[in-house]
Amino acid sequence: MAGNIPSGLLEACLVLGVSNERLKDIHLTQLQGKGKEPLVEAEVLQVHAPPFVTKESSSNGTQQDLDSAFCRGQRRRSFKKKRDRPLSTISDSGQTNEPVVSGSDDLSVPQNIDLIALLQLCFPDGLRITNESREDSYHFLVFTDVFGNQTHGVVAQYCKPVHYQQDNGIHQNSQQLKKLQRLYTTFSICVISKYPYYNALRDCLSSFLLQLKTSRMCDFEEQVKEFSAKMALVPIPPPGPLNVVFNLRPFLIELPSRLDVDRPVMDLDLHLPFLCFKPKQILQIISSILMEQRVVFLSTNWAKLTLVSECFMVFIHPLRWQHPFVPVLSRQMLDFIMAPTAFVMGCHTSHFEEVAEELDDLVLIDIDKGTVSSSTSNRFDLPDVPLTARDCFIFRAKGLQLHYDLDVCDAASRSDINDQRAHRRQWQRKVNSVILNVSMELIVNIFSEVCDFLNYEHRVFNSEEFLRSREMTDHTFYKKVLDTHIFHSFLRDRLNQRNDAFTRMQLNIRSSESRRIKTLTVSPRRPTMEAINRKFVQPENGLNRRLGMSMPNLADHRLLTVPIRQTSMGTMTFQSGSWSPSRPIKTFKLPDFPPPLSYQYVQNYYNDLIRDLSKAISGASPDDSALLARYYYLRGLVNSVAGKRLDALTDFQSLYKTDMEIFPAEMLNVLVESLPVEERKTAERRPDLKRLISRVKRESDRERARPVDGGSVKRFKLPKKHLHMEDFVRRVQESGIVRDQGTIQRLFEALTVGQQKQVDPETFCFFYNFWKESEGASQDVDLPVVVLEHLETDECVYKLSSSVKTSHGVGKIAMTQRRLFLLTEGRPGYFEITKFRDIEDVKISSAPFLLLRIPTLKIKTSHRKETFEANLKSECDVWHLMIREMWAGRKMADNHKDPQFMEQALTNVLLMDAVVGSLQSQKAIFAATKLAYFDKKKHEVPTTVPETTSETLKHKINPSLDQTAPQAVDILLYTPGQLGVSELDGGGNPKLWCALSDGKVLVFDAASWTMQHNSVQVGKSRLNCMLAVNQQQLWIGSKDSFIYIINSRSVSCNKQLMEHRGAVTGLALEERTDRFSQTLAYSCSEDSSVIVWDVSTLQVKGQFRVPCVRPQSIQIHNGMLWCCGGDCLLEVRRNGTVHRKVSLPNHLLSSPRGFSSFLLFNESEQLWAGFADAGELCVWHCRDLNKPFIRIQLKDCTAVVCMIRVKNQIWVGCHGRSPEGKTRGKIYVLNKDRYTVEKELMAHEDSVQTLCSAEDRYVLSGAARADGKIGIWKVE
Fold it and tell me: Residue 1125: CB partners within 8 Å, gap ≥ 6?
């Protein structure tokens, strides 16, 4: 959400120069011939800051101070107070420590402006009285306070003639030239803004100077004040697709909005660095900034210093420079370069030698010459950015179209200056968008894989493992960057799961296959055969991406054979999720400025502005909610400064229904706190405003409770003290070895066999190092080509034995996730021992050798008669354990159609190996048996699945793979796609939406059942219902009483409906009768209220209460609303009156929870209902509900949770019990015409929470927390 942002363009406007009295003295000196073009001391002549007009008293006589400008209510200090105490700021040795101020002592200046620094920065070359006039010039400033907050300034320097007459009077603009000796003095007008509107403010000053040069000097101060007051009337547009335009003759000036909430304003020409530097030099500068070096920009043009250095601050986004940033240093400030910290500064090229001699480790960047060098040599000695990112950036930069004149050489000349400027802005916007994509791609290519080494639960970054994964040539670069403040802040944002441009582009540039590999597997990092093959066959493209394994039968390995660098540069196109605007930028023109120093005229201006915004709101399409949100935001802003606080609250309330991402929480908190008593009482009487105020308070309290720095970030370190179970679980999760708590607890038992239940630091260290050594050894496996030909591209070698004698010769036994094979020695060869699914038996025997008997492993397989034997000697026991676990895992995976079992078995096997290798004692093998989870489970419970279940089940998905423990699957919803149509146009593959128990929503590609996007967090409460309203909206009802609306295209939640007072339990959509009618949606909540919504406007069309207990779901049939409550089923008319009622059957009247779900069938006129405390269904005849109903008993079912209709069947999800008394989730498939159970499916190890149909071809089931998986079932 947007912060407490300043709402107006102007912070302050200052005029600096030489006072009349001082000019008189200088002129007398010049007449006496005592000097030429003397360097004089500048003075602050004028200061203007909002508010410029106030209403001192309200109509009822109470004192009030209403701001009549968009200002922040700044703290101010007077010049007089300023002069009463010394200032500890930089000044020249010949100057005093106080700013020279002309005029009265009652002038005041905003608290955060340093006048001494400002005097020097506005005249960085010094101020001279000259005999010749100079052209106007502009340069740009950046001020940073002690908290890192930036303020920006645009300075216009213009020359004024000064005339001196015989009577010692000074006159300006006089026509009596013959009696005058002409001198010229320079004035600086500095406009300070919280936002870097460099181009816009330069245009404003240019327009003002045209007016100033034709006016009398006696009107100078009044004109500057009037200009400042006009600038204070300009509101800042919120982030998004709306820019603000205002008229300052002769120019129409446009204020661009921020591209995104996390982006600063970008009123820059981002192609300037590409005109000054070659791509290689640009990369060197970015590298210097990322490594937090002391960087000095040099130029003979003061304006270039700020503009170019600001561009580089944009290029490193989302990393933020957090050290001193002073792009313009005057000659008096050069000792800033002696600062002992990192910095980015700029100074005039004439100071090059002086600067270079001061320090040895400066990075000197000459903008005019396009060179980057060190202060100790002419070369750039710092590490380059990683090779892949560098090559990709250079490739992109070569394709940039940077010359406006070339692009418009075939265009007609424009006669209107504003048309010409608008066309230039449009071209610049397009160029900026492309450059932003290029720079963001660079940052993503450098830091994308950082996220794979983060532990989000404990906020830990495993830097050593990340470095180990990088190419050796890139280590120096990463070692320097990983220790910087800006990288630390970047990590903090990643751990806070910030959904910014980096995250969106990271998702876009990863192919769907590589995303699937990362998301759907949890296997330890080992190189696949495809990666090994690429490393040997195509060394120029061989990058160690350390891909995990893919799910069986889902990967098309042909898609994975494209070299990564080729994909990155040659085939990747920029996606809409990056910086290209997804829709055209609109503009809103402000009314013409009124006399800005008159309170009444200013109020009329605000009323006109409110009227224009209201007109724009009424004329905007309801479907364009993003544009509507910007209009509401601006109108709320104007209402707040116009004193219409309640109207402002109403406008900001509308952001919840249009785009809550730009909701200004802190600004609204200040507005609420400032409400007078009477207005506060009025707001409390309005339910909508009362809810808003209470929510603002809650958010404010929650914000205050959050860490100021956004949360800590830790680096992984090995423990130095004994670890009990809880500490051990945390440490293992931090290490990245495994995340599942159950597995870690079994590992704890293995490492503490025969001792006190705590792991000493030495044991943990041995275990961790052995694990990492094994991982490194597997990456160095050198397989001959003849072996690679027999393996799948996604296979990984996880374990390699020592050289042993086998029944098929001498060699090493290798284990992948699919098979065992022998890597023969001597002449390299391949002999497949077995696939794990083909194993029939594994046992340990012994073979005679001289006078000894050597342990031998025997493996019997189904596809070979003879038994494979291997004399594994001391390795025999651990290989026996590992093979049995993999065998059991494969059987479980095949029987349950769940590949995660195989992944988990593989993790168990590698943990066994690490335990045995680290303990090195007689108890090591016994300790490893603690990890044989599937081998034990195979003996404890039958692994076979009933035939009907096995035939119907197609696949299982675990949506909780990135969690430390399974999460309940509360809702599933399938939305169809449209193949051949892009995502932006509402097409693409079908999607499966999955709501987990913690308010998290996951999205799967329903064509391949693979995870498609990062999760979307919608509140923190349980989600109860989900409804696809149209191709763009997904409504989700939550236990916290809100309805969250997800944009199904961008997969983001930026709207909320807050009218319900209780948990939202049901949603239903009424189909439109014709294309001109409104689409209506219905929602019900636990407090028995039903709300009717207009889908297009999200406005409430009606509201009523239904007389039932705890409504759980609603449906619409034949224009009537059916509601399922705990005590009854109701058929309700649209006005809320009850038409018919179905009460609980007599034998269930004592049921505490009553009805749980229901279905209606129009063609057969049947009403089916299930019960929360009984394993049965009841069927009523809709024509006559008083007829006897039909009861259908469900075997081994204790509660009906949900049911859906699929073709001519009814699928019922239940809570059941196994004969052993364990909870089981069962699905019953019934024939709706014969009222019989056709199938009984053993679906899950916990109750079935939700069911949904995928176009009547598949049914998807979601289970409660103990299971937490999604089942995919075939429909016959």
Answer: 1088, 1106, 1108, 1109, 1110, 1111, 1112, 1154, 1155
Which ranges of 404-528 does DSSP label H, i.e. alpha helix?
404-407, 417-447, 463-469, 475-481, 485-495, 501-509, 512-519
Dist CA 750 CA 730 (whole Å): 17
Q: Which helix (H) or strand (E) holds 388?
A: helix 387-398
> 173 and 298 share a domain?
no
DSSP conformation letters of 958-1023: -TTTTSSS---EEEEEEE--BTTS-GGGT-BS-EEEEEETTSEEEEEETTTTEE-S--EE--SSPE
CB 330 within 8 A of CB 150: no
For residue 728, the SS3 value is helix
CA neighbours within 13 Å on the CB side: how many for 328?
28
pLDDT in tens, 900-909: 999 999 999 9
CB-count burial class (<10 Å; 0-12, 13-18, 19+) for 248: buried
pTM, whole model, 2 decimals? 0.87
Q: Which amino acid does the sequence have at 730?
A: R
**DSSP β-bridge partners for residue 1237:** 1230
User: What is the CB neighbour count within 10 angstroms for residue 541?
Assistant: 15
**Is 1221 a member of any domain?**
yes
Give pLDDT, residue 529.
54
1177 to 269, 939, 1244: CA distances (angstroms):
69, 37, 21
Pairwise CA distance, residues 856 & 869, whole Å: 6
Residues 6+ apart with CB under 8 A from 147: none
User: In this structure, are 283 and 176 located in the same domain?
Assistant: no
Omega before residue 250 within 30° of 0, cis: yes
341 in the same domain as 216: no
1162 is a domain residue: yes
Q: Which residue has the tokens 């916290």?
A: 1040
Between the two ends of the chain, the Cα-to-Cα distance in Å is: 48
Question: Beta partners for 1254?
Answer: 1258
Within 13 Å, how many C-alpha atoms sit on residue 367's CB side? 26
Rounded Cα gap, residues 811 and 880, in angstroms: 18
CA distance 1208 to 1230: 9
CATH number at 1052 reads 2.130.10.10
Q: Which stretches within 84-219 are classed as H helix?
A: 115-122, 198-212
Low-confidence ranges of the chain (pLDDT < 70): 1-6, 27-38, 56-69, 71-112, 163-181, 378, 510-583, 708-709, 849-851, 941-943, 978-987
Report how far residue 576's alpha carbon sits from residue 259's, in angstroms, rounded to the nearest whole number.
13
User: Tokens 């830097």 map to which residue?
Assistant: 463
Sequence-distant (≥ 6) Cβ neighbours of residue 1193 within 8 angstroms: 1175, 1176
State how far the Cα of 692 lies from the Cα of 653, in Å rounded to an integer.
Answer: 7
Where would I find the H helices in 1070-1215? none
Maximum separation of any 2 CA atoms in the chain, in Å: 129
What is the domain extent for residue 133? 1-232
Give the helix, strand, coil percentages of the chain, each rounded to 5.
35, 30, 40
Q: Which residues pair with 1209 in a beta bridge?
A: 1206, 1231
Q: Which of 300, 283, 279, 268 is nearest to 368 (CA)?
A: 300
Please name which of 296, 289, 338 lies closest in space to residue 314, comparing C-alpha atoms. 289
Read off the tokens for 996.
Answer: 């987990």
Residue 67 pLDDT:
56
Q: What number of other Cβ atoms are within 10 A of residue 1105's Cβ?
A: 12
To which residue do tokens 């200056």 refer? 417
Phi/psi for 422 (5° steps) reads -65, -40
Structural domains in the chain (count): 4
pLDDT at 847: 76
Smallest CA-to-CA distance from 1010 within 336, 420, 512 is with: 512
CA 1088-1094-1100 angle, to 5 degrees, is: 50
CA distances from 442 to 275, 286, 390, 396, 518 (A): 19, 10, 8, 10, 21
C-alpha distances in Å from residue 437, one per residue of 241, 446, 571, 573, 578? 18, 14, 15, 10, 6
